[in-house]
Amino acid sequence: MSKIHLKIAVLSGVLSLWAAASLPAHAGKTLDAIKARGQLVCGVNTGLPGFGAADSNGKWSGMDVDVCRATAAAVLGDAEKIKYVPLNAQQRFTALQSGEIDILSRNTTFTLTRDASLGMHMTAVLYYDGQGFMVPAKSKFKSAKQLKGQTVCVQSGTTTEKNMTDFSRTYDLKLKPVVFEKLEAATGAYFSGRCAAFTTDAAGLASVRAKEAKNPADHTILPELISKEPLGPMVRRGDDEWFAIVKWVVYGLIEAEEYGITQANLDSMKTSTDPVVARLLGTNEDMGKHLGLDREWLARAIATTGNYGEMFDRNVGSQSTLKLQRGLNQQWNKGGLMYAPPVR
Amino acid sequence: MIPARPAPFTSATWLSAVRQHLFADWNTGLASVVLLLLLGYAGTHLLDWGMLRAQWMPDVAACRADGVGACWGVVAEKYRVILLGRYPLEEQWRPVVASSLLLALLLVSCLRSFWRPWLAVLWLLGLPIYFGLMKGHLWGLSLGLTAVDTDRWGGLPLTLLLSSVSIALALPLAVLVALGRRSELPAIRALCSVYVELVRGVPLISVLFMASFMLPLFLPQGLTIDVLLRVLVGITLFAAAYMAEVVRGGLQAVPRGQVEAAASLGLSWWQTQRHVVLPQALTAVLPGLVNNFIAIFKDTSLVTIVSLYELTGALGLALNSDADWRPFKLEGYVFIALIYFLFCFSISRYSLWVERQLALGNPS
Amino acid sequence: MRLSWRSASGRGLLYQAAALLVVMVLGWFLASNTAYNMAQRGIQSGFDFLWGPAGFEIGEGLFNFDSTQSYALAFLTGLGNTVRVAVTGIVMATLLGTLLGVGRFSRNLLVRVLCSAYVEVFRNIPLLLQLLMWYLMLAELLPAVDTPMTLGPLELSKGGLMWISRSAHEEGALWALSPEFMALTLGLTLYTAAFIAEVVRAGVAAVPRGQKEASAALGLSRLQAMRHVLLPQALRIIIPPMTNQYLNLTKNSSLAVAIGYPDVVSIANTALNQTGRAVECIALVMAVYLCTSLLTALLMNAYNRRVALQER
What we know:
The complex is a heterotrimer.
Chain A: H1 2-21, H2 30-37, E1 40-45, E2 53-54, E3 60-61, H3 63-76, E4 82-87, H4 91-97, E5 103-109, H5 112-117, E6 120-122, E7 127-129, E8 131-136, E9 151-155, H6 160-170, E10 176-180, H7 183-191, E11 197-201, H8 202-212, E12 219-221, E13 229-236, H9 240-258, H10 266-269, H11 275-281, H12 288-291, H13 297-305, H14 308-315
Parallel strand pairs in A: 1-4, 1-5, 9-10, 9-11
Antiparallel strand pairs in A: 2-3, 5-13, 6-13, 7-13, 8-11, 8-12
Chain B: H1 14-22, H2 26-52, H3 60-64, H4 73-84, H5 93-110, H6 118-135, E1 137-138, E2 141-142, H7 155-181, H8 186-201, H9 204-218, H10 227-253, H11 256-264, H12 269-284, H13 286-299, H14 311-320, H15 329-361
Antiparallel strand pairs in B: 1-2
Helix pairs in contact in B: 4-7, 4-14, 5-6, 5-7, 7-8, 7-10, 7-14, 8-10, 9-10, 10-12, 10-13, 11-12, 13-15, 14-15
Chain C: H1 8-40, H2 71-103, H3 109-123, H4 127-141, E1 149-151, E2 154-157, E3 160-164, E4 173-177, H5 179-206, H6 209-217, H7 222-252, H8 264-275, H9 278-307
Antiparallel strand pairs in C: 1-2, 2-3, 3-4
């Protein structure tokens, strides 16, 4: 009998020692981890058409998904070596903070709180958006300022609640929020008539209207944008190298559109003598080595998703069901805000 | 003097049975008439909506037509997503086969004649086969099937998996915790009591939130645990606390004389528990334990809140993004309510059967 | 007491020491990991965020909450909402459950069958599913907000049940019950009533048969016997499991987050997202539920002691 007790004592002693000895190791570099794993783990939306949604065969598409694919192509050489982790609004930050995902590409707004106190960094703005309201077309509201005392369906866990409150206070509207955990519950309540309005980012409104309204023409998106919502991918704090990579993939795609490099003319552009184009595609200088990548990093990214304009058109623009205008997301020299720092 | 009441009926014809049960006196008769009227009204409307005017074909236009009742076509159209979640379409035979295997194992374990040692061997063989089929690979060994990650698992197989694995793991833990709560060693008693009271005092939602959002923060960097595993751990710990209370009740019901007799026979504490106390305690509270099993089966519906698409979540997935079929969500809800009812009702009837079997075996 | 494992008391000490050691090391491991991870990622911690302005509105509550007020007050509003649902649910479920439980002993076959059928149906369907169904039905069947059903000052529509003061109609409702509150209370009541019915039935069945026969011999009708003899005695057996059901109802009200009712879990969720303090918010929620459980258990135990059989 004493043998059993001896074994138990030794086992508990060993367990305690092991627990004490396995202190958390230093954070490994994200890029090394991704290369070792051979896969990019990408946090995406559970289902927002145009930004991140999977079809019934499990194939993901959308603006945010394209950023992940471009990054995977730049880093690993293969846009399919991605593991998509669908996250709802509550889980997304803890998933990134804990290291479960490498990049959070989930139509997340850049704000001070998120940049400074949540342990993450915003990389580059992918989409300039604003929050808006959607109301039934037959309601009497033509402007968001007419929504005095009305109920508004909203999803919890996003900046929408705070923005709505600020707007309501500024114009003394006393809006009454009905807050749901899941986006589908919020939109379901709006479409069943529980609330007078539904609020989220304007692109999200278009997406919801296209996807879930029986007749999209029955719903109007009110003209006011009550907040600034710059959306873009986010990475964890503490790894500047990875931060630079993701940031410059986005900037590279924007600059590719500025210089006219498309998916179709990529091969012919590789022989171009324009020094900017040559730098972007790695034919004269190797810009990739500064990032820890090879010289073809951006060429592969463009080959995968096309330039920014092609990404926009395909996912949320003229070739999609959302039919959103470029608006603020047009290039800087065409009146929009997309101004990529030079790749040089 | 109290007035005499009419003598009870003793004749056995159909009419007199109705009279006895439904119209024995004025009050009963009035209640029967009112209830029959209400039932008739509700019943005919329900029948009309659910059966006579219902649309059975998966045809959206026909369902939307005026005067149509329930649209059961939504089930015909979406049953694959509702029952199997986001599992890839071509591989859907795998969860069906794997779940049938699991159900067969469970059914076999329910019958008393199969309570032999080789049942454990059967489980030890069956579980790896189940996981191998669902995942496509087992402990690194590829089985020639496409790998399907756990976040694609969903629907009824996920419900069955979560319930059976958490119950199987929670039961031994519950027995240990119940024994610990009755221990004479104050530290162990305190630890087990704190665990049970803490877990029983909080709702399952907060345990699931903690397991899915905060567990990554508690672990060293680089160590990531599968979402399914996290949820499983959360449900197991939750279930074990409730089962521990039930088992503790059973342990209290074992007469002290049993323990004293075992001591006089020279059995050690562990031997006493294993051979004398636990068999009696567990058979005494088996109905209570089975009640807990039903509760856990129902509680798996909560994992929708942490984005695992079991049966309830898969219905949302199937219908929320499809504007054509979304108006018929109620029919979808009724469909999965029927499935849950079927499972839970069977388990409760089984528990009554087991109770009878055990009573037959131990006439008191 | 010798510290060797040849003596039972020595073994006992060693086991306890080992158990405590394992638990302490595990706790230290988790805590140090959490602290390290949070420092590494620049995540701030602490409860100081509770005194900052909340910045979000709450749709309904016992008192008017304004977004300039603190997070602490927001949590209190959420707690008030939870208590509101819990108390209403407990009262209604007890009434309905007792009626159903007593109905299982009716002489009327139809009543017996209906009560059994109710209990079986509502016990075997998950609560979340029931809540979603009730919310869907209320959302679909209630009239639109601009064409409400009116009965005097009461108005019923998709916006809820409201008491409109006619003189100041622009002001809106004097008090209102939102559809979320109605769906949640209805779902919780119907679900818990099924369990309470079983508890009451078991309690009444456990009263010795002689009591029923004696009351019949005294000429009491079945209803009088139930009211004056059986139920009071059954009460002693009923109270502990009933306490359990009340606690379950309070904990089940946390499902409000799925149908948009701003209870304490929902408020904690919003606070978690706005401040990023996941650990603090979830800890607060668990503390709230532990306290309400303890309080309910204390109250019911006091009541139990009062009705306990004063035996020799």
